[in-house]
Write a structure and sequence with these properties.
The chain has 463 residues and is of the alpha+beta class. 35% of the residues lie in helices and 29% in strands.
Length: 463
């Protein structure tokens, strides 16, 4: 365990109860933050031990910074020395507020910036390079290759009614201490400034979007924000406000390479450029209607399950996004233009039915009348019919309804949901799973108008 902060004094809270603390240590091990502290009030735990709420510690560090530790779970408490041990299930925030007047203008707080965020789980080859030159005295020394791919520049649009400006640029760089990816938000000439408000407005969608490209979950490990930052060199930074997120490091992330950002710098260059430039803005808007975040979570969290379980999770995710589309779409209540149906199709159906009526012996005339009356319902869109929802959504998402896709809707989905069968043999099971996985990824990619590299292991589009 590494000691990352020392708390000199503060208080602990739970519901309406609180107690002073004399001292505390904040540790980090494998990404999880733990806290040990001594509690002044002997009766504090007797008042809170049956509570279902988390604890919270607010204090001052050894450097005089404010520290807030939230969502603390109590692992143990010693009544003899009043020592409590806690695990943080959310985040800790450390802020330099020693001279608050520096961060005000006309007695109003300045607008905070976001400078850097550190991500865990994102694996990518960098798309852009930095040129390297060496000199000995005044003479230039030729080196090969003379550059290194060490960052990815991303320019993108983001439109929001509460934000002035819509064109931004960020860089992806590497933290040399742990190989995590850092997003560098520092302002660049010609682009809009990233305020903390803009960042927090798009944060969830940004993480989900990166998880989609990555083919595995991307999680937020650290945020550096506030009114100033310091550059310690070699991609090591600090800032006025630091937020650390507490969760266990994953040893393997089981990355899906449908968008092969970790194969070659040219691939990552094309994918990030085409995905982000206008795709992120579309993703942000569509996510509000279709809940892409849940779909991406399902896609990226099936990698460690068995094949049948994976398939069922993805079928459920497909039905959920189709339901969201139906609920929010402005489609006509009719499958075919109602005027065409009433003037051209329905009369011919009636004529055909009347011909059959003369040839078929009718034992129950009322049954025939009920059957023929259903002609009026044939053109109505049934929003409770799951198959119809899937057909409508696939059409909207520009999925070509070839034989393979129709077979998924008409047969494979039903066999999986009702019979627990996803194929007749091992090869068919794998292909049916890959088909469903690829179609769901293509739905998102098509809707944000991405036309770049896709690494299909089963090409359902050719069947």
């Amino acid at each position: 365990m590494n000691i990352i902060y020392t708390i000199l004094n503060g208080k602990i809270e739970c519901e309406e109860h609180s107690s002073n603390i004399d001292f505390g240590l904040v540790f980090e091990q494998d990404g999880v933050i733990n806290i040990e502290t001594y509690i002044t009030d002997k009766s504090f735990f007797e008042k809170t031990e049956k509570s279902n709420n988390y604890y919270k510690i607010i204090g001052i560090t050894e450097k005089g910074y404010d520290i807030i530790c939230s969502h603390l779970f109590c692992n143990s408490y010693s009544y003899e020395n009043r020592k409590g041990k806690f695990t943080c299930n959310s985040k800790i925030t450390v802020i330099d507020n020693k001279e608050p007047e520096k961060y005000k203008e006309n007695d109003q707080p300045l607008d905070k910036s976001i400078f850097f965020v550190e991500l865990e789980g994102l694996n990518t080859k960098f798309a852009n390079h930095t040129s390297i030159q060496k000199h000995r005295g005044t003479q230039k020394i030729d080196i090969f290759p003379g550059f290194t791919f060490d960052h990815t520049n991303i320019g993108f649009m983001f439109n929001h009614p509460d934000i002035i400006g819509n064109y931004y640029s960020v860089d992806l760089i590497e933290n040399p201490e742990n190989n995590n990816i850092i997003i560098d938000f520092r302002n660049k000439e010609g682009y809009c400034r990233f305020s903390n408000f803009i960042y927090e407005t798009m944060r969830n969608e940004l993480l989900s979007f990166l998880s989609f490209l990555n083919g595995a979950s991307v999680r937020l490990r650290k945020e550096l924000k506030g009114y100033y930052y310091s550059d310690k060199g070699n991609n090591i930074f600090d800032s006025q406000e630091v937020i650390l997120y507490s969760f266990k490091q994953e040893k393997e992330n089981n990355q899906n390479d449908y968008f092969p950002i970790n194969d070659h710098h040219s691939y990552s260059s094309e994918i990030f450029s085409k995905m982000f430039f206008q795709g992120f803005d579309k993703f942000y808007q569509l996510n509000k209607l279709l809940d892409f975040q849940s779909l991406i979570f399902s896609l990226n969290n099936t990698n460690t399950n068995g094949l049948n379980e994976r398939y069922y999770i993805l079928i459920t995710a497909l039905e959920r996004v189709c339901k969201n589309y139906t609920k929010n779409s402005s489609n006509s209540k009719h499958l075919i233009d109602e005027n065409i149906y009433q003037t051209m199709i329905k009369p011919r159906f009636k004529e055909f039915f009347n011909t059959l009526k003369k040839e078929v012996v009718i034992k129950d005339k009322s049954a025939w009348n009920i059957y023929s009356s259903k002609l009026g319902d044939l053109n109505r869109r049934n929003n409770k019919d799951t198959k119809q929802k899937i057909y409508s959504f696939f059409e909207y998402a520009k999925i070509n309804l070839n034989k393979s896709v129709i077979n998924l809707i008409e047969i494979e989905r039903n066999d999986a949901v009702h019979e627990g069968i996803i194929g007749r043999n091992d090869e068919e099971e794998i292909n049916n799973y890959l088909k469903l996985d690829h179609i769901l990824r293509d739905c998102i990619a098509n809707l944000i108008e991405y036309d770049g590299i896709r690494k299909r292991k089963f090409d359902y589009t050719k069947e």
